[in-house]
Design a protein that fits this description.
By secondary structure, the chain is of the alpha/beta class. The protein contains 14 helices and 42 strands. It folds into 4 domains: about 130 residues, no CATH class; about 200 residues, no CATH class; about 220 residues, Rossmann fold (3-Layer(aba) Sandwich), CATH 3.40.50; about 90 residues, no CATH class. The chain has a 10-stranded mixed beta sheet with strand order 20-19-24-26-35-34-33-29-27-28, sandwiched between helices. Helix 1 runs parallel beside helix 2 and helix 2 runs parallel beside helix 3. It comes from Haladaptatus litoreus.
């Protein structure tokens, strides 16, 4: 499946549709020109498909930076939305747009004036000229499947081949689009790997103990370095005479995690000497602290860069590292080896906990006037015994996932099946996003208004339906449809999901085609997990009784967050902060799934505090997405700064005036936290926060 091109439905121009990621992007022109296919091989950077049309002017309906390069890829100029305009004289150029939901390049032969107009950027050419547009999906497919036995050395051989997916071993591999998906792993009777899957010639060796936990923990580092994983009693990195011990007074897992973060981070800084010479905030902070020649390191060998990077004490870099986006606990069993390609692709930090221990989830005391989304009391007192719930250790990353038995408190319970569905997705029958809200309890109709929160997006068409009091047959038929999202409001108990004529036990269904879901009901985790096992990619469930008022708050917040591009996991992380019992909600399956692409590329969350006078302190938190994974650049566009940031966690703090805050709030729909309350940027002004 390749990007497709057609005229936009309401204005002249070009609409680019990526059917793999279900995202769209438009370029507008003064009049409609015929759109003709052209050769994608003519672009310097790789594209999947390309077209040509004629125009004098192009309007990009988004504030975006633009890189202007020669046809050979050399950077000639760059435009930032903080600039009034940027002009280049007549020549042959490739224009790269920064914030499109796919890689997008425009090839032109003309002078170009780039300028900002309200919430758009305009490209003005010398005259009416042919413009070639090339697009490449962010989606990446594994190159094949490696078969391993349960011998741990087979897993080491397989992980050694993960680096075959890297598109470069230069510092640019820190860009997500230059890190391909590692080959898959399946278990079998003997080791085998497809022809053509070969480790890059990095010369890097990663020595780890012959223990499953150690090997799994080292997987993302091995992938990123293109390293060969070999057994040895003393864990270390080695490359062309360079050697770095991975044994320390700290745990092996922490040492590996710190090494991955350090190498990745310094690659991000050094790559600013290459194709993308941006003003990077993190480089500004770190460069005065370290004795590193960034320009020389860009051209150095991988071994030389590793030696230089790891000569810097981790404590020097730690305050300036981006908040790492994800930590995954992988219970070190043989069958969980099949999850490692997905963990590596996410560039998650990995921990290997011992066999999980269960715990008890306590229900909050029930006031006589409170209404819960459960029709019966399971036990006396206020304790609800849940045998399969586990308590993961806290992590310092923004998000957390769990691969293994049990349901993790406050985390994402994922499975190999749901990970595989991430890459097995097919193009939808049409371009609409189909959402169905089900309210099966008259007393919960207040949450039913969430259907109004879905669907307000430019360039995306939503079909949002709501049903009340469905029967078991009707709800089963709904889950059998290829819907994008089902938002269920009602009751769940040991018998299943309550309907008007009884209970539907999802475990009895033959197949589920609904992509994602929210089961906003008490103790919905078993029914939600059954949906994932039967075919869904992921969803949000609860681990215990949930008060109706609390459930309504979470349901409304999550609906709005999913609508603006947050994933299930990140959306829930913000939504559940609405209530004190938010830890009782978890994601199951692929928590990184998003219904739509965020318009700014990465979802944003503002945290606002009052300062003296009419000023405010604003923290901007950014979350990597599946189309813009960790390592992408992000420009916050606050205070007209041209500085860019790495796209994970809290970027920085800014002190802004009331007028500046209002201007930022008007840029789009964003969640805003003020004094521990969640607001929405399209519903408040700075004056409301005084």
């Amino acid at each position: 499946m390749q990007p497709a091109f057609e005229p936009p439905p309401t204005r002249p121009g070009l609409l680019i549709n990526d059917p793999i990621e279900s995202v769209r992007f438009a370029l507008y022109t003064p009049d409609q020109s015929p759109i003709c296919p052209t050769n994608p091989e003519e672009f310097h950077f790789p594209v999947d498909a390309a077209v040509e049309f004629e125009t004098k002017k192009i309007e990009i309906p988004r504030l975006t930076g633009v890189y202007v390069r020669t046809q050979d890829g050399d950077l000639t100029a760059s435009y930032s939305v903080t600039d009034d305009e940027t002009t280049v004289s007549a020549g042959a150029y490739n224009l790269e747009l920064n914030t499109a939901p796919m890689k997008l390049y425009l090839a032109v032969e003309s002078g170009v004036c780039i300028e900002k107009r309200d919430q758009s950027v305009v490209l003005d050419f010398d005259e009416r000229i042919p413009v070639r547009v090339g697009a490449r999906s962010f989606h990446e497919q594994p190159a094949g499947t490696i078969t391993v036995t349960d011998d741990i050395e087979d897993s080491m051989r397989a992980i050694s081949l993960f680096g075959s997916a890297l598109k470069t071993t230069s510092p640019e591999r820190s860009f997500p689009t230059l890190r391909g998906h590692p080959p898959l792993i399946e278990r079998g009777d003997e080791f085998s790997a497809p022809d053509g899957i070969e480790r890059p010639e990095t010369g890097v060796e990663l020595v780890v103990p012959r223990e499953r936990a150690a090997v799994y923990t080292a997987t993302p580092l091995a992938y990123y370095l293109g390293a060969e994983v070999v057994p040895g009693e003393s864990p270390h990195l080695a490359a062309s005479g360079f050697e770095q011990s991975l044994a320390s007074s700290d745990s092996f897992g922490n040492t590996v995690a710190n090494t991955l973060q350090q190498v990745f981070f310094l690659d991000c800084l050094v790559r600013t000497e290459g194709y993308y010479r941006v003003d990077l905030h993190e480089r500004q902070q770190v460069e005065p602290l370290v004795d590193l020649d960034f320009a020389a390191l860009y051209d150095a060998s991988l071994a030389e860069r590793l030696a230089a990077y790891l000569s810097v004490p981790f404590e020097t870099l730690e305050p300036h590292l981006p908040d790492w986006h994800l930590t995954t606990d992988v219970v070190p069993t043989a069958d969980n080896a099949e999850s490692l390609p997905f963990v590596a692709n996410d560039l998650s930090l990995v921990r290997c906990p011992p066999n999980p221990t269960t715990r008890t989830v306590r229900s909050q005391p029930k006031p006589l006037t409170e209404f819960y989304r459960a029709d019966f009391v399971r036990s006396t007192g206020d304790t609800a015994s849940v045998n399969d719930i586990v308590q993961p250790d806290p992590s310092n990353s923004v998000e957390h996932a769990w691969i293994g038995d049990g349901y993790p408190l406050g985390s994402n319970k994922t499975t190999v099946k749901s990970c595989r569905r991430r890459i097995e997705g097919t193009a939808p029958d049409d371009s609409n996003i189909e959402i169905h809200v089900v309210c099966n309890d008259e007393r919960m109709k207040e949450e039913g208004v969430v259907n109004e929160f879905y669907g307000f997006r430019d360039l995306l068409e939503f079909d949002v339906d709501i049903s009340y009091d469905l029967t078991t047959d009707e709800l089963a038929e709904l889950f059998a449809r290829p819907l994008d999202f089902v938002h269920y409001i009602g009751h769940v108990d040991d018998q299943g999901m309550q309907c008007s004529d009884g209970y539907l036990d999802v475990r009895t269904l033959d197949v589920v085609r609904t992509k994602a879901f929210l089961l906003n009901a008490c103790r919905s985790y078993e029914q939600g997990m059954a949906l994932v096992e039967k075919g869904s990619r992921g969803g949000v469930v609860t681990l215990s009784e949930i008060a109706n008022v609390s459930a309504t708050k979470v349901g409304r917040a999550l609906a709005r967050l999913l609508n603006i591009g947050f994933s299930l996991r990140t959306g829930l992380e913000i939504a559940k902060n609405e209530i004190l019992t938010g830890y009782r909600y978890i994601t199951v399956g692929d928590g990184g799934l998003a219904l739509v692409q965020c318009e700014s590329g990465c979802p944003m969350h503002l945290r606002v505090k009052r300062e003296s006078g009419d000023s405010f302190e604003v923290d901007i938190m950014v979350y990597p997405s599946q189309t813009r994974r960790i390592g992408a650049l992000f420009r916050p566009h606050l205070n007209d700064e041209d500085t860019q940031y790495l796209n994970s966690g809290v970027l920085d703090s800014w002190v802004v005036s009331e007028a500046e805050l209002d201007e930022y709030l008007n840029c789009g729909v964003l969640p805003v936290t003020f004094e521990n309350e969640l607001y929405w940027s399209d519903e408040i002004t700075a004056a409301d926060l005084r």
